[in-house]
């Protein structure tokens, strides 16, 4: 479900329904130069490609052979990961008076407070 141009109450209510029924939810809007986007994907599984570098032969310590061995033996493996997304109501109901919140405030975009 994708929403735009809705009130905060409507967005929270629709997100709760989507989350309860395992339906992915996106909302966003733009106000001139400022905008926001929120995604509640519930329990989201995805695959990430990781580079796996084999160990260099212990007999070769230095020189061009070392670099060649590292580059030629690079392999990729696919790693399955899972992420749990929070609901919109939780994201909007942050208590900014706690110590953790004060640290997070530095990493929070000012646009978050425009949505409030």
UniProtKB/TrEMBL annotation:
Would you say which domain of life the source belongs to? Eukaryota
- The parts of the chain that form a coiled coil are none
Which SUPFAM superfamilies does this one have? Activating enzymes of the ubiquitin-like proteins
Supply the name of the protein. Answer: SUMO-activating enzyme subunit 1
Species source reads Charadrius vociferus
GO MF annotation list: ubiquitin-like modifier activating enzyme activity
